[in-house]
Design goal:
mainly alpha, two-stranded antiparallel ribbon, 4 helices, about 30% helix
Amino acid sequence: MGKSLPTPEGPLTFDYVPRQQFRPYHGRKQRHAVQICHRRAGKTVACINELLMRAIAHPVPRKPPGRFGFVSPTYTQSKDVAWEYLKSYSRPFFLSETPNESELRVDL
């Protein structure tokens, strides 16, 4: 979507541009969604970026703070499939910490 988010230091650019098939997914108003796509269509990349967009847009002074997650059938599948995508797409939004490799967690 190529979004730009305002910060005190200047705008942060969100470099993800979704494929045509995933634009309705990102533009939906419902909480849950189902994607029916062929393999290698970009479902994981779309999900990771949707997760980041929702987490970044979450109001900051809210109690309790937002928690967002990616779920797959096994821990190993999540690590193999989504962890590298999450680290690379969330890199511009790290506050002061690097991703927590042992817990597979990124704090924004």
